[in-house]
Queue: 2 jobs
Job 1
Amino acid sequence: MKVSRLVFEAVAVAFLVLAPAVTLQAQATDEWRSWNRPVEPFRIAANLWYVGASDITSYLITTGAGHAIVDGGFPETAPQILANVRKLGFEPGDVKLLLASHAHFDHAGGLAELARATGAIVVASAEEAPALERGGRDDFAWGDTLTFPPVTVGRRVADGETIPLGGVSIVAHLTPGHTRGCTSWSLALGEAEPRLHALLMCSVTAPGYRLVGNEKWPGIVEAYEATFGKLATLPCDVFLSNHGFVFDLEGKRRRAAMGLGVARGPAAGGPANPFVDRAGCRAYLEEAEKRFRAELAKQREESAQRP
Ligand SMILES: [Zn+2]
């Protein structure tokens, strides 16, 4: 299942664009639906909560001065996210910031509705903001194929910029490749030292992308290379990303639900929180870079063989 999803992510979009067969589209739609099943919200650690769907992630960061939500899922995910925030005992009206990872329909699709329902402002990297405001149109890889309701970005942030919210510092890290302004967010959790650092990693896959001779983005390979280098240096105690399969959301959620240490951790005398997974974070990055390098080598070989 995990492998098939990974493979799917890598090829689905290429199929959609290159082979407009109805059956493939139907398969893709079924797969997307399977990513968007409602799941119970829960606390990941300290003031960081899961409010997303079965695979399409969304996170809630709570503070005494208002809250932040990271990513809005598909348009159909927004009502789930709002219901999950309420289920956890928080008010959508107290959400002040909507942080965007990247302008793809499955992560930014619900932002317009979340902004409308909460009154929060959308925060995104300056590099990603134009694509969010175009609703994903004119994507360098997907063109106008996979669009979503456009959003107004109220605050554009630079690489390394910190967004303070009620004593919590949320840091933007520009990690382009998957999109031009793909943004990973990080924050330190709780008050007890040493504090755990959560990394909400932006997608690093290259689903059907042309890496060699890409006229729309000649620097795409260098962008990915810099991103893999940067992500390897960021603290990643609590490993999270845009898709649940990247960090085994389902398995960790199940272990957490069995009482294996959610919101406690060894310092509090409880077992380890399954979401604290430095090794998993490192292993995923190494694997993703290996896949990227293999795809790049393949495309370079193909381009060398072309007359
Ligand atoms: Zn994406």
Job 2
Amino acid sequence: MTEQSLTDVALPASLTGRTVLPSDARYERVRHGYVHRGAPAAVIFPENVEETAVALAYARSRGTVVSVRSGGHGISGRSTNDGGVVIDVSRLDHVDVLDRTRRRVRIGAGARWGRVAQLLAPHGLAISSGDTGDVGVGGLVTAGGMGWFARRDGLTIDHVTAVEIVLADGTFVRADAEHHPDLFWAVRGAGGNFGVVTAVELEASETGDVVFANLVFDARETAPLVEEWGAVLEAAPRELTSFLTLMPAAPGRPAMAHVAAVYAGDRPGAAQRVLTPLLGLGPLLRQEAVLAPYPALVPVGGAPHRGQGLGATRSGLLDRVSTQTARSVADALASGQVLMGQFRSVGGAVNDVSLSATAYAHRTQNFQLLSATVPERERSLDAHWARVAPEVNGVYLSFDTRRSPEALAEAFPEPALTRLRALKARYDPENVFDRNFPLR
Ligand SMILES: Cc1cc2nc3c(=O)[nH]c(=O)nc-3n(C[C@H](O)[C@H](O)[C@H](O)COP(=O)(O)OP(=O)(O)OC[C@H]3O[C@@H](n4cnc5c(N)ncnc54)[C@H](O)[C@@H]3O)c2cc1C
């Protein structure tokens, strides 16, 4: 679909001031995502539910590809396209505390998590989202949400109490445990397949200052460091959540490991006791630990996206960080098969939730592994992943660029996949929302 043919069929009047076309000076700032580059024929910015429904009807009437975008950080989900329509909900970005006593908040799907953190902090509240303040509410809250308090608080979706969504036929629905419970279940893990989420209600957590530690190690001995990090996390109390990022050696420096760790409490003595075992992971190059308000952990950037991220990724959930997994990742980094490896701790409160409570149905694993490279080296990535695969127990699709039936089956183990497909047939029979992972 070209710009000409889009404008031939007039935009509904309510959208004319809301739409950016390729001829517009603003187009360069809105065409791409963080990872994926795009050349859409139109980017529409609805400002309310009605305009969202009109934008969707318009895009459908054109027979174009429809992408839904909140923060534009999709790795698996492609929130831009070539020649189609992008419905960008970033102007639906309100953050309201509905009931401080019960910690109930309502957030527009287009808000970014860093701003959410800033606006909730004065109320002594926070929602564990992810490690990046610019990630959007809509994309994360429809998939999972592995954040800085994952082991204390669970996933972001575990705090969602209601979703407001425009379905493929334009109907607006509020789904919660009593109303449309099937849809409520599906959106919390596979939401990108079911409509345009406009807002969510969540139960936030009481959170004041927390201890944030950043440790950088010489990782020449990568495998033992990785294995030990896993052991420390398994033994740690739930207040500790940590992400371990591994970078291969580069000219002038050895392989390095960055351990980011959050102690979700404000008592420095207790934090020190919990963090100290991490100091022994290897030769320490740099260390810092600060008592900080949660918004400082998810700063807001706001630069336009350029499609700059590592575009080929694999995700695997792990029960443990075994010797075999640690060795495979270390070898892949040393050989150049992958350019970045990242482990995240999950477990803890994530695993208190029943397997059938949400479409995200991984409630026994303790770690998440992400391996990434550039698309041109995807075959090397696959060779590495074949070695890791026997240890993998499930996939978090937000971190995986595969679109194969195998990846889908690992992401939604039965009976979740069959239930999702039945709901897809009911709520989106024409597969309008096909830009995330192919449920059908
Ligand atoms: C730098 C970076 C750091 C990250 N860190 C974390 C992390 O710490 N923890 C974690 O769990 N994940 C993390 N992610 C993954 C991230 O959560 C997902 O990629 C998520 O989809 C991004 O949300 P978004 O709204 O910014 O994405 P977008 O690109 O806007 O959307 C991605 C996809 O989500 C769906 N979607 C988006 N908005 C809506 C909506 N309103 N209604 C329905 N469907 C929608 C669509 O299918 C879309 O294609 C990170 C990603 C990046 C790039």
